[in-house]
Structure formats: structure tokens, C-alpha cells
Amino acid sequence: MLVTRAFTKKDVRDHGSGNIGATNVARVAGKKVGAFVLLLDAVKGTLPVLAAMHVFPEGPLSHVAVGYAAFLGHVFPVWLKGQGGKGVATALGVLIVLVPQAALVGAVIWGVIVVVTKVSSIGSLAGGVGAIVTSFFLGKPIEYPVLAGVLLLSMVWTHRGNIERMMKGTENKV
Prior knowledge:
- The chain is built from nine helices and no strands.
- It has helices spanning about 1-10, 20-30, 30-55, 60-75, 90-100, 100-115, 120-135, 145-160, 160-170.
């Protein structure tokens, strides 16, 4: 929201889908600004988890709790009265730290699907599935793939309007 306003003098909540996330920012302010917002939103997930891993190096449950709290803080920010983004980039940021290979697989799946379909929400959810599957085969603490599953279920919930529009054939293109 702040980045879009700084670059375009527009409130992203009044344009496109009204969502403050990177996809809508890209629609409203351009792909470069959208990519910058995606980076910032991912950092919201990476920094707290890195801090948790530093403070609790042997505490995967702490890492997961902090990661999910970062996700929830993005989706339900107090300063926006609980009207945040869908959490995809923040979830990616969390997974980049905890299971980087799974994050990469999810990001690649998202990218391929967006190129083919031009629908970010399909790519986001499919990427989440890819991240879960990958994370279970990496030999990491079980809490990490479980978090990947919880993040995907949470993203299904945040994308419920997108899913409804997909079923009607009216979902927004990138």
C-alpha cells in the first residue's frame, strides 16, 4: 500500500482487486513495483524466522511459530484493521529460510503457471502444493513440512474469493 502510494500516488486498495499484495500492486503500479512489493513481503517472512533460528537454533517449533506469526501478521495487519495481503510472498519468505529447496520448487511452479495461464492465484496455490510435497522429502524437522501444509491451507482460505471466481471463469489475469 505504502509503496504503491509512493510510486503512483494511488491507494492500491481502491484499484484492481483492492488487495495490498504484490499481484494487485503489479496490476496497479507496474511489474517492477509489484516485484519490489513481493520482495518486501517475502522479507517479512525471512527476517523473523532468521532471528528465531538465531535465538533458538535447536527449536524447530519456535521457528514454525514465528514463521506462522509473520504470515498472520501480513494477512491480518493491525494497522490496516485486519485487511492485509493473501500471504503468498510472506509464506515464500518463511520457506526460503526453513526449506529453501521447497521454496524454490514452489516459486518455479508459480512462475510456470502464471506464464501459461496468466492467473497468479492458480500459480500460488499450485506452488504451495509443490512446496509441501518437496519439503516432506528433504529430511528436515517434521515441523517444517507441517508448516508448509498449514500455510497452504491458510492461503486456500485467503484465496477463497479467487477460487470462487476461478470456478465462475471470471478470475483476474495478471
